[in-house]
Amino acid sequence: MTPTSRAADGTPEEPVRRAADGAPYGPVPGGADGAPDESIRRAADGAPHGSVPSGGDPAPSRTAAPASAGAELLDAARRLAPEAIALRRALHRGPETALDLPATQRLILDALDGLGLDIRTGRALSSVTATLTGAADGPTILLRADMDALPVTEDTGLPFASRGPGLMHACGHDVHMAMLVGAARLLAGRRATLPGRVVFMFQPGEEGHHGARLMIEEGVLEASGSRADAAFALHVNPNMPAGEVLLRPGPQLAASDRFRVVVRGRGGHASAPHTTCDPVPVACEIVLALQSAVTRGVAADDSAVLSVTRLRAGTATGVIPDTAELAGTLRTLTEPTRRRLHEAIARVAHGVAAAHGATAEATVVTGYPVSVNDPGMTALVRRAAADALGAGAVRVLPAPQMTAEDFSYVLRAVPGAMAFLGACPPGVAPHEAPSLHSPRMTVDEDVIATGIACEAAVALAFLAGRGRLDG
After folding, report:
1. Contact 198, 467 (CB under 8 A)
2. How do residues 261-311 score in pLDDT, each as one tens digit?
3. How far apart are CA 130 and CA 283, in angstroms?
4. Counts of helices then strands in the chain (DSSP H, E)
5. pTM of the model
6. Is pLDDT of 58 > 90?
7. Are 234 and 454 in contact (CB under 8 A)?
8. What's residue 471's pLDDT?
9. Above 80 in pLDDT, residue 215?
């Protein structure tokens, strides 16, 4: 990482200002898209005054009523919400994918300006790492938000919909960034009583590009001058009730790998298959045999998913091809099962092909590891979130999800946890809401305040406990 920021064209700029006065980062673009037209003004404590994102009064919160003194944190987050929502909408309008996100990076740098943070940007990717150092010495916690969008054509009809052709923030990363900026502002206002350091990790390339691993290689875990002692991340989910925080100890998300099998036979005329070695039925048998390899080879209490999602062969109806190809994804929750199924894919492909006089070449591309929540950190998150949001807002996730996350690289390096933040949009049941990665995915923006409060509460609880984690 380098201590300079970069403009949209990639050229170095002057160092990011590190004033301690909480000066605003200026007007938020607005107009017909529904974002505020006027600049957001901040009081001395960093809370915004003036406009709200959609005009008029803020919508009433659907967050569970706080049950303790943590309510003050949620109140502070709600005061920051209009500005955070405006930032989210600006990010949503201009999505960028993969590792190079210059415009997104610029918005984040501008949003963090004036908070007195030590800010560094990445070399191999458009990352932003910002460190808040408290008045007293203590441990370090890392909070993370991913930054990249998806190659999806948006179909939400929102007034602030994507202006990038074929690109959309369909996984909620725009919300994650807005929440983390809000948490940075909230915590910066408490610097005088902060016993330790908070590292804010804004990470490109979560959608298949291993951005977290690259940031670790560039030193994000040591950004504060010493290695991070813990880590936390939130991920919104429109198929969970708005305002609820859900997590579990142990595996939270699956490992994700890709596989490809090429079957080689001998082509010929479709009217005389007996003179050929047809690879198509061989490929079809491999598809079925791979399903049996999972259901008969993996214990019922150790979930795994193998899906063949592509099958290609031939160019004409009258021709038996020489080759057929199948490909798909493998999701597992333990490393032994993962390794065993890697071996099973090759063994099944070779065996079925050999039984028909054909050959097969199997390739497995290793993806993200299992995301494993540290039990002690999970317990701390649950306590902190319940204190800030109310006990009814925090639930144990009943089972791991078979989606994958590259925050898993951080969780392998330091004790940490990832939690889901329910974000089901108003007027629809969670099970009916368009899911993550859908071109129609929307969220309840009211949960942005919830997320700000949750991230700040976790950081404050960890630092107040001097880094102690009790499982």
Report:
1. no
2. 999 999 999 999 999 999 999 999 999 999 999 999 999 888 999 999 999
3. 50
4. 9, 18
5. 0.82
6. no
7. yes
8. 58
9. yes
Question: Is pLDDT of 46 > 90?
Answer: no
Supply angle C-alpha 171, 176, 180, rounded to 5. Answer: 170
Backbone phi, psi, residue 73, to 5°: -70, -40
Q: Taking the CA atoms of 311, 315, 319 and 320 in sequence, report the sign of the dihedral they define.
A: negative
C-beta of residue 302 within 8 angstroms of C-beta of residue 310? no
* pLDDT at residue 214 greater than cutoff 60: yes
Contact between 230 and 377 under an 8 Å Cβ cutoff? The reply is yes
Nearest to 326 by CA among 353, 308, 314, 305: 308
Q: Name the one residue in this structure whose structure tokens are 């997590």.
A: 247
Burial 331-360 (b: 16+ CB within 10 A, else e): bbbbeebbeebbebbbebbbebbeebebbb
For residue 221, give the nearest of 461, 409, 406 by alpha carbon.
409
The contacts found for 65-69 with CB under 8 angstroms, 24 or more apart, are 65/390, 65/392, 66/387, 66/388, 66/389, 66/390, 67/386, 67/387, 67/390, 67/391, 67/392, 68/387, 69/387
CB distance 132 to 150 below 8 Å: no
CA dist 136 → 190, 192, 195, 466 (Å): 12, 8, 5, 11
Q: What is the pLDDT of residues 399-425, one digit of tens each?
A: 999 999 999 999 999 999 999 999 999
CB-based contacts of 31-34 (< 8 A; 24+ apart in sequence) = 32/159, 33/89, 33/93, 33/159, 33/160, 34/89, 34/158, 34/159, 34/160
Nearest C-alpha neighbor of 443 from the set 241, 193, 284:
241
